[in-house]
Amino acid sequence: MVVWAIASEENNIDDVVRFAEGFELTLPVLYDEGGRVHADYVTQSEVPSAAYPEEWIIGTDGVIVYHAANYDHDAVVDVIEAELGGQ
Amino acid sequence: MLLLALACAPDETSPCAYGFERDEAGNCVPPGGEDADTAADSDTGADTDDTADTDDTGTWLSLPAECAAPSALATDPIVLTDEVLPGEHGGLYEMVDIELADGVAYAVGQGGLLVLDPNPGAARVLGAGVGSRFHRVEPLGQGLVAVTHRDQGLIVVDASDPAAPSQLASLGASGMEGMAAVDGYLYVSVRDQGVVVLDLSDPARPVQVGEGSGLSAPWELSKSREGWIYAADNALGVVPIDISDPLSPVVGTPVDLGAAVLHVSVDGDHLYASTGGAGVVVLDLSDPAAPLPVATLPTGGSVVMADADEGLLVAADHDGIAAWDVSDPAAPVPLGRQATPQFALGVALGNDVAWVADWTAIEGWAIDRAAVAPELSLSSSEVLVPIEGGSVELSVTNHGAAALSLLGATTSDDRLAIAASTDSLSPGETGTLRLSFAGDGSALDASVCLASDDPDDPEQTIMVGTGNGDPYIGLAAPDFELPGIDGNTYRLSDQLGHPVMLAYFATW
Questions:
Q1: Measured between alpha carbons, how far is residue B466 from residues A47, A81, B441, B450, B460 in Å?
Q2: Do B476 and A22 touch (CB under 8 A)?
Q3: How far A39 CA sits from the closest chain B CA (Å)?
Q4: Which of B242, B295, B319, B490 could cross-link with B282 by S-S, CB 3.0 to 4.6 Å?
Q5: Predicted-assembly ipTM surpassing the 0.90 threshold
């Protein structure tokens, strides 16, 4: 299981670095300049593009198994348990 | 939660993702985490079916199969009076700070500055505009406010005509954030430096007249009794600053609260520090150079701002707001907690009405100090169950000041069964709801109605499905390659065979 934190168009890279340092994050923090990758994911207009936090979980086969725009602990746990349980 | 600890692999020693923190067992959980859940998962490990958890919590109760509000309900201590959506004013959203002064409310965020008429029951936008991405606002009196922007510095805004706020002056500098206006001077905290003193006797020409060093990541300043201001320093804690010589602030000894301090607010002789999942910490300022913690008030959410006024304290914690009677600040009495519709980031309190910066909305919440009522809070109102069948547990917490009764539950689909660990919760107590799906391989899209004596929501709805609701689920994830701030490059397709969680976040 891999977790990547991604900052996108709302930030500049200096803010992201400071933020990561402030929270002492050492998991990979990626910078999606201009929200380019985010735009690849959000292809359907009914999903707001400026909602944070926003989580995507991609299964072992590269298929999206979870997406939500507001952290829902129980739902994330259920999805991850299902993914790891299936390995 | 055991699996997000695994989620940190391949670097098992890494901290949890933003929004998570370590619990005692070393698992990554949301701040203030859901205790019942965490305990259950730790005990049973990574099973996909939680039915084994029944041993932990004893007998399950079947609630009466009915869902109707009781005829008599207690008076709710926290009642919504206003919901102002200033969307038509240039897309104002992610509002992060709010202050009451000059008979108006000033809020700042992604869309710049918003001026609101805080008239309970008739609140409305008076004006908006001037720049964007502000982090803090500080009233200077007579319709003037100062706002900070992390990269662009400080802007003085003339809002004496609230319908048309205009920029009066700016002072470019990076890292400016918190502000406290004291006796004609404006103290501004500066990241990795300390505090600077600006003379605003001519607000169109702010002049730096002093400075003091010794702060690390100061997110807010609060004025206090004569001669002192206090910094919320994300890295250091609560930091007293001696301004008895107004032009030579002396940064004192930080009080480490064991958690990042995100905001400070002073009322009388006490300081209220917002510390994320650790809640609000109350500090006694009898010795202004050495604030002394006297109470800690967790909310179950992540407290990012709190405001106290006339013996009342209200905290904003992302999920909603919580209120206490702090007539005796060392012994706060909880009044209740209320979920807000969006994402509560800021709060300002006046005349017992809490004005809440709630992502795209500003809301007014009237606090009734005399009301005592239960408040039901579910860990989630949308639940996924495995299509092949299984059960999912939700925690149910009473955030009110009176006992809560679960009166009944119904489901729209006979394949779904509901049980509870208890039907009565004392104030602050958490129980468990179990939703069991007798799966037959076909999809579920059901709702559960849960009846209680919570006065503001006696018939709560829980959506339960097998997870086909989101339009993106089941689609192939677009591959990408992105730079990390560590200098490495990360490519999604390199992780094929591992589940990957992408957590988009904002830095403010």
A1: 20, 15, 10, 20, 20
A2: no
A3: 10
A4: B295
A5: no
